[in-house]
Design brief:
Strand order of the largest sheet: 3-2-1-4-5
Helix content: 25-40%
Shape: globular
Largest sheet: 5 strands, parallel
Number of domains: 2
CATH topology of the largest domain: Rossmann fold
Distance between the termini: 53 Å
CATH superfamily of the largest domain: Glycogen Phosphorylase B
Length: 327
């Protein structure tokens, strides 16, 4: 059996969801191989997204002892492998030299193989995969399939009938967050349009809840619905995916929740400030539109992105969803 090792720096939820098409391509190229995913730091593939990875990866080894410190060269390499094929998905030459110390027969690094690839994160990863497989590899951008129990719970939390619009105001930091008062104004505006705003608020974003509820007192928060009581405590990305699949569209910052909405296939308006959509835009939504602050102000601060273009995008997307052939 062929043994493949794949190195990644770390996998936060958003990064991990962007990597799903790569993992699908890797498995399609090497369907019988034993694939081990190695990360320098943490990986959600060994935690809240283990269920997603289990069909694509055989082993996940977070904190693998490689790629964090140049002084690793003075210590024996970790006893990982040997691998018939060792892939390094990150692009820093210095880290690649550390990864290359693992036992292997063939080593392919994105730092070399992905030179000249397109700007999106997946472009480099698929250039790496094409080099390893010696052929171009198709990208499977289909939505994630959620377990039936989660799909049923989401249907109970968001029954058919209303036009639900998911709002995900959280992000990895204030610099990536569209002002919460604008999300609140958007929620109130959705109500006037006959839509039902649905809040996706993680534990780290509790402070955003008050502003949204002041605008829409009966705001829906389906993640807390009793239908999901069978889930253990803690982050549940697939719960968000299941909820988003019940929505007509979503609005989110460039952050994990946006990628979760996209992973459901639901149309998504992605809001960008200092980060670059050409590199980080979600890829699995059936209609993804990116709005950039720099197109509406003098810089890249999220506060420079007005409310009106988001409203216009929503109106356009709801019309498109209702008339997919323009009829």
């Amino acid at each position: 059996m062929m043994r493949i090792g794949v190195f990644s720096g770390q996998d936060l939820v958003g990064d991990a969801l962007l990597k799903i098409p790569f993992l699908r391509g890797l498995r399609a190229c090497f369907p019988e191989a034993e694939i081990t995913w190695l990360t320098a730091r943490a990986s959600v593939f060994s935690g809240p997204m283990a269920a997603v990875a289990e069909r694509l990866l055989d082993h996940v080894v977070p904190h693998c002892g490689v790629g964090c410190d140049w002084r690793e060269v003075m210590r024996p390499a970790p006893a990982l492998g040997p691998f018939d094929l060792l892939l390094d998905t990150q692009s820093r030459i210095g880290v690649s030299l550390l990864v290359r110390r693992l036992r292997h027969r063939r080593f392919v690094a994105a730092a070399v193989a992905a030179r000249g690839a397109g700007p999106h994160m997946l472009d480099g990863m698929f250039a790496l995969l094409a080099t390893a497989a010696a052929r171009p590899v198709l990208r499977d951008l289909s939505p994630l399939t959620v377990p039936p129990a989660l799909a049923a719970a989401a249907a109970a939390a968001l029954p058919a009938g209303p036009t639900y619009v998911a709002l995900a105001p959280g992000s990895g930091g204030p610099h990536k967050s569209w002002p919460v008062d604008r999300y609140a104004a958007l929620a109130a505006w959705l109500v006037t349009r006959g839509a039902v705003p649905v809040a996706l608020i993680g534990p780290q974003d509790e402070g955003l809840r008050g502003a949204l509820r002041a605008a829409v007192p009966d705001l829906l928060e389906p993640e807390a619905d009793p239908a999901f009581s069978f889930l253990p405590p803690g982050p549940q990305p697939l719960r968000v995916v299941a909820i988003a699949a019940r929505c007509a569209l979503g609005v989110a910052n460039d952050a994990g929740p946006g990628h979760m909405i996209a992973a459901s296939g639901t149309p998504l308006v992605s809001l960008f400030g200092p980060t670059r959509p050409e590199k980080f835009r979600p890829v699995m939504s059936r209609d993804g539109r990116c709005l950039q602050a720099k197109d509406y102000g003098q810089g890249r601060k999220m506060a420079e992105l007005p409310l009106s273009p988001v409203q216009q995008a929503i109106d356009s997307m709801l019309v498109q969803a209702a008339n997919p052939r323009g009829s």
